[in-house]
From TrEMBL:
This is Universal stress global response regulator UspA. Signal peptide: none annotated. It comes from the Bacteria. It comes from Enterobacter agglomerans (Erwinia herbicola). Residues 3-90 form the UspA domain. Belongs to the universal stress protein A family.
């Protein structure tokens, strides 16, 4: 079976690099594309209003950190990463 496109769902833990390395080893023989996706919690769904939190600023900061982490995984892959996707909320809705 020849792979054409491999989508890796990462949680940005240290183990994510192991997943990327495995995907690269599967993709390289077939010159397949690789994409990364990370779906984070939608913090506005969890907010109870008990403390004063600026959710917009927090969500923006988390988004920036996510993009930086995905870029780090892409740069360390040693193989072209076609796309890096990120979102927040329910995985099915984000996809």
């Amino acid at each position: 079976m020849a792979y054409k496109h491999i989508l890796i769902a990462v949680d940005l833990s240290p183990e994510s690099q192991l997943l990327v390395d495995k995907a690269v080893s599967l993709a390289r023989p077939y010159d397949a594309r690789i994409s990364l996706i990370h779906v984070d919690v939608n913090y506005s769904d969890l907010y109870t209003g008990l403390i004063d939190v600026n959710l917009g600023d927090m969500q923006k900061r988390i988004s920036e950190e996510t993009h930086a982490a995905l870029k780090g995984l892409s740069d360390a892959a040693g193989y072209p990463i076609s796309e890096t996707l990120s979102g927040s909320g329910d995985l099915g809705q984000v996809l």
